[in-house]
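Technical annex, item 7. During the second reporting period the consortium partners agreed on a shared format for inverse folding records so that results from different sites could be compared directly. Each record opens with the tokenized structure and is followed by the designed sequence. A conforming record, contributed by the partner at site C, is shown below for reference.
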């Protein structure tokens, strides 16, 4: 099956974060490809990846990067496919530098930006974009959101029944 989503990251050190996008796409049964594409160390690879993505059937690109975080924006500059940027937490500025770099794009080059280390939400957003045109994926996303609602409702009911001190004790087990 041809991948529908491209997941790219600037370094293998980003894999632990970016794998969360892959896990959610697996849950929604959406095919993807995952690779390392550095905007700074392999600019030709980034260029080739972004330019060829549409022809390979990619519908959404999730790009994660830390520090200067040029990968999502430069990828968006090279393709008309929606790009979702994932700012990766850094040791120097805790990912705020990455966040600003990704979300402060100039007019005409949008990058949807999720929270720092928010790759799971990037995967969900990619699924929602694809689900807007694919009823089966739309239904899977709806089911996922229903599960989230049920989980919160059960937790609320439990908290109301046993009160906060017992609830906290159970949480720490």
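Designed sequence (site C submission):
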């Amino acid at each position: 099956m041809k991948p529908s989503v491209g997941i790219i990251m600037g370094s293998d050190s980003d894999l632990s974060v970016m794998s969360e996008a892959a896990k959610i796409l697996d849950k929604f049964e959406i095919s993807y490809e995952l690779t390392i594409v550095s905007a700074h160390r392999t600019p030709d690879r980034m260029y080739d990846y972004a330019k060829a993505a549409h022809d390979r059937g990619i519908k959404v690109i999730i790009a994660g990067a830390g520090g200067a975080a040029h990968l999502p924006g430069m990828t968006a500059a090279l393709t008309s496919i929606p790009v979702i940027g994932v700012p990766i937490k850094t040791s120097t500025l805790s990912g705020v530098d990455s966040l600003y770099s990704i979300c402060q794009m100039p007019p005409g080059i949008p990058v949807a930006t999720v929270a720092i280390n928010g790759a799971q939400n990037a995967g969900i957003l990619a699924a929602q974009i694809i689900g807007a045109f694919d009823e089966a994926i739309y239904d899977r996303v709806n089911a996922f959101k229903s599960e989230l609602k049920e989980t919160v409702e059960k937790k609320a009911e439990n908290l109301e029944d046993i009160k906060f001190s017992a609830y906290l004790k159970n949480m720490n087990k």
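The chain has six helices and five strands. The domain at 5-133 is CATH 3.40.50.1970 (Rossmann fold). All partners now use this format for quarterly exchanges.
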